[in-house]
Amino acid sequence: MRKHGKVAALGIGLLFLAACSSSEGKQATEADIANYPNKTIEVYVPASPGGQTDTAARVMAKHLPKYLGANIVIVNQATAGGALAFENVRSSDKDGYSLLFNHQALHTGHAVRQLEYSTNELTAIGTYSSVNQVFVVSANSPYETLDDLVDYAKENPNEIIYGSQIGGTTHFMGELLGIESDTEIKILDVGSESDRMTGLLGGQIDLAVTGVGNVLNYIESGDFRALGVLSDERDELAPELETTVEQGYDVQFPIVHSLYGPKDMPDEIVQKWNDATEQLAQDEDYNEELEKTFQQHTLMDAEEARLFSQEEMEKAQLIADELFSDIE
What we know:
Elements: H1 4-10, H2 30-35, E1 41-45, H3 52-63, H4 65-68, E2 72-76, H5 83-90, E3 98-102, H6 105-111, E4 122-131, E5 133-138, H7 146-155, E6 161-164, H8 169-181, E7 186-189, H9 193-202, E8 208-211, H10 212-221, E9 224-229, E10 255-262, H11 267-280, H12 284-292, E11 296-300, H13 302-323
Parallel strand pairs: 1-2, 1-3, 6-7
Antiparallel strand pairs: 3-10, 4-10, 4-11, 5-8, 5-9
Helix pairs in contact: 3-12, 6-13, 8-13
C-alpha cells in the first residue's frame, strides 16, 4: 500500500500565494460587446518562452487573427508558478482583451494550493492544442517495459526516483502512476522539462515524463527509452509507442491547452472566439505548423471546455486528496 513516499515529495510544493488581489474588473458595456474586437488582445501564458505551452499559444496567436479580426500578443508570466498571470486575467476588465492560455497545471496548482483560485473563477472560452506525454527512462536503464519498472518499485519502495515539477502536471502524472500501480515512487522536484531531461541523461533520476515530440528526438539519438504514452489510444504522430492503458495501467494525462477569460465575460464575446476558432481548426497552415511541434488541435467550444475543465479539476483534486491523506 502506498503511504509516505508521496507526502515527503509534496512538502516543498506547498506555496501559498496570499498576495493575490480579490478585486475584479469592470463589466463590458454594450458598446464594448458590439465593437469587439477593436484593439490588440493580450493572451497571458504562465510559462517561459520556448516551451510547449508558449509554442502552442504563439501558433494560435499567429493564425487566429485572420478569423477574429484583431492582433493577439503573447505575454509570458511564469512568475510564482503562474499565479501572477492567473490573477492578472481573473481581475481584468471583462471585455475580452486579457485572456489566459494554459493547461491542467491550473488545476494541479490549485489542488496543492499554489493557486488561490480555481478555474471556477474564470470563463472557459475553448480548447486549442493538445499533446500526449510519455514516461521515459535512460536507454541504459534496466527497465525495458513499464511492467519492469513497476515490478522493481513494488519490491523496492521509494527507490525509483521520478523527476518532476512539484505541484505541476508532471508531478501528478507520477503520482497517478504510483496510485494505479500501487507502488511508492520517490518524487523529486527537478524543475523544468529541460532540467528533467538533463537529470535523466545524467543519471540523477530514473524516470521522467516529456512530450511525444521531445521523446522521439531522444529515442533517435539513442539516449532514452519510452515506457508508455499516458493515454488510452496510441498517438497519431508516434503510433509505434505503446500506451500506459494497453499495458494495464490507467494513467491518462494528455495535456490540453485551454483559453480562459475573467469570470462573467459576455456570451457574445465568447461566441466570437468560438466562431473564429472553428474556422481556425480547418486552417491547413495552422494545423501543419502545430503538427511540427507534435501537437494537434483539440476543438471544444465554451460549454465543452467548461465541462472538461471541471472534470480535470476534479481529477486533480482526487489525486491531491490521496497525496494529503496522511497529512494533518
